[in-house]
Amino acid sequence: MNALNVRQLFEKKFGNGYLVFRAPGRINLIGEHTDYNLGYVLPAAINKYIYLAIQPNETGTYHIHAADLREDASFDQEFRKNDLPGWARYPAGVIRELTGRGYQLKGFNAVFGGNIPSGAGLSSSAALEMAFALAINTMDKLELPPLELAKAGQQAEHHTVGVRCGIMDQFASVFGKTNQLIRLDCRNLNHTYYPFKSKDHTILLANTGVSHALAESAYNERRDQCEEGVRMLAREFSEVRSLRDVSPDMLRTVGKKLDPVILKRCEYVIEENERVIGACSALEKGDPDLTGEFMWSSHEGLRDKYEVSCKELDFLVDTARAISGVKGARMMGGGFGGCTINLLETRHVESFKEISSEKFFEQFKTRPEYYEVSIAEGAGILSE
Length: 384
Ligand code: GLA
What we know:
alpha+beta
């Protein structure tokens, strides 16, 4: 579904006099499960979007049509989340966060659709939240800065959706810049842009097509395990507030006292933070081989220590290792399915797709989808 389709549907359903917003999905080059541990991430917004056509109404009710799903939801500020279809909890959650901060919001009529595959780890849900947050910010003249919109989206996930996510996805969706990766320090939310554009190299995503129903509970469980690690470490080192404050030496000192599973989780997070820093300096040096090395080891950590990969993702990464021109590959996002991200020489893109698709088919009898993404601008208004 593109912006034009969304407009046409809106006009059919609600008539004229509306605004159109769009918010992008994201990739993450490296730095997985580090955001809620107050570490580093290196995401970017991509040229896949949620488009939202919207107009205020005077009824205090929110009427939303999900164009791709051909479903409707209507609710007001007193909604009960269990009465809403899953997708409507994202905009409803954003509304709840903003009204909770004391803002008076009007009702609205809205139609949204897009081209971010859902369940693929490309943050279609954060894009949906950011499209609505930006639209409400504009229509209700709240004048909230982008960071507050990102935070409202993240809190909507915690309180209304039930996933205790970090801030990476919402942040990337609003702070994205064309051809720039965002190095975000999730402790103080300072961010730096790293140029990423080279005709010689391509970022190619390979979608396993797998999305596990348990992903959300496993996500929250990982977060609990990290918090448990922090509690234990803080007994020994009072300055520790998050895994970001823990050095490899500190972890070695306390290691034996930790449950082995908790220890693995903590090791992964501490090492992944170091890999992000390493990848950033590799990018600065213009060294794709070294950048790729960090990606391979990130995948190993996610697979063996954080245990959020799955056989389809591992298969795609192992296959990528044997294909010419691939600098690095890893699973991307929360895990248990979705996409791998591959950094490879542009001249090898077609042969990569052929070989990896064939091998995946032999093994799983389905074929991955491939997306060559470009790094795009963050959420914004398309037209008035
Ligand atoms: C999901 C969450 C993010 C982040 C990633 C893993 O995308 O929404 O906050 O934790 O998983 O890196």
